[in-house]
Amino acid sequence: MKREKILVVKIGGNIIDDENALRQFLKSFAKIDGKKILIHGGGKLATKLADQLGIQQQMVNGRRITDIETLKIVTMTYAGWINKSIVALLQAEQCDSIGVCGVDGALIPATKRVVHDIDYGYVGDINFENIQADKLLQLLEIFGTVVIAPITSNQVGQLLNTNADTIATQIACAMQNYYDVSLYFCFEKKGILSNPNDDSSVISSLDKNYFDDIKKSGNAKDGILPKLENAFLAVEKNVSSVKVIHAEDLIEDISNNIKGTLIHA
Amino acid sequence: MKREKILVVKIGGNIIDDENALRQFLKSFAKIDGKKILIHGGGKLATKLADQLGIQQQMVNGRRITDIETLKIVTMTYAGWINKSIVALLQAEQCDSIGVCGVDGALIPATKRVVHDIDYGYVGDINFENIQADKLLQLLEIFGTVVIAPITSNQVGQLLNTNADTIATQIACAMQNYYDVSLYFCFEKKGILSNPNDDSSVISSLDKNYFDDIKKSGNAKDGILPKLENAFLAVEKNVSSVKVIHAEDLIEDISNNIKGTLIHA
Hints:
- 2 copies of one chain form a homodimer.
- The first copy, chain A, has helices spanning 13-17, 19-31, 45-52, 68-92, 133-143, 164-175, 208-217, 224-236, 250-256, and strands at 5-11, 36-40, 59-60, 63-64, 97-101, 110-112, 124-126, 145-149, 151-153, 159-161, 180-187, 205-206, 241-246, 261-263.
- With 265 residues, chain A is α/β, with parallel strands linked by helices.
- In chain A, strands 5-8-2-1-11-13-14-12 form an 8-stranded mixed sheet, with helices on both faces.
- The first copy, chain A, is globular and about 45 Å long.
- Chain A starts with a strand and ends with a strand.
- The interface between A and B is large, with 41 and 41 residues.
């Protein structure tokens, strides 16, 4: 039996930070038929707000520590301003949608990250097996589009900051039990580059061996490796299609499948 | 035919500002059986954040003007931090719930307030006849409890700040078509007082004539008159029960109906 398709799209900071780019993206996204889930990060807005409030961002090994003040800031910006701005813009484009975060309906139960050598603070780890897929399916039935901010909570009511790529991946894995999922990581490059300094060197098809070579080469740009780890996890869990792509190319790729980097086993 | 009951509760600033009071309130609220809608204001958090950011709050005739920076702040605090904190705490009390604002699913369509002598800025006016009751009913079926932040938007994607008492009232009016609605305005007094300086002078039953007397007397405290205007609008639209009550007394009143001030025709 042919299964219904669903689109799971992650948009990153660069598009969120640029009001015109975001508006353009949402205009196209609104036109895509069928059920869809949009997971957004937070861009520089949270960092900017922290700066304005004089809250120092602690970084350890290049990773941000979420203390209580930072948690408040990311919850306000991600689940508040960005999430509701996106939904309002989609509604204006006649794309019905609802904005939630992992806390709502306990859709994405999380556990506070266990402290080994580094205490990341109020950071939530999640697993697709715990996602309340039934409720998400019902929201998709009613609204068509669900916009998800990367805030979660644990069982005792503690809000937690969770990586948006991780949420997109785990949501895709959970939805694959019910739909054929196309998972897109949209970012500011045309795809994964064989030469990080050459924007035209897009790898059209990337398998696990190739990925291992990239890791060994040591010249991948910041943030690409964790994104690819997520992408390969989705592949491993049988998500129908996984691509890394420029946000501007999403619509074209949905119709012709020739853009970006296809991630496969 | 006896209709199902639903509770529509507005909680105000004083309880939001006090972490312990909020936690206590939510603990009791979580225990109430049946479908319920909780509308929250924002308390002093938005004002505090505006102060920290050096954003001057403009007041005209004692009413706040929502400029674009203030809009961002109220959206972040109301729809972000407060809404998600409430939902996380309810979930921790085994009360399933979803947090939304009027923007989500275009649940509460608004129009930007028309400028007559005063430009209130990004403020949204609403009417219960436009509320998408069918979607709200579906959310109540799935989650049982819906928590609503007082942010709305118009048809072209502009976010708008909307009074939480007004939202509670209009939601109650919209729900009355489907349920017997009990509408509670919870605040920091035991009810409407006959003597504003005597907390024990609670008026147990207040009709329109009595309200007219209070208005004429000119000694009602700030904010009481608009709250009562809202309460009487709900009465006029046949909402089954309308009360103004202390947050701490809500649970007791639900079982014995002897607390607070009953508003009636």
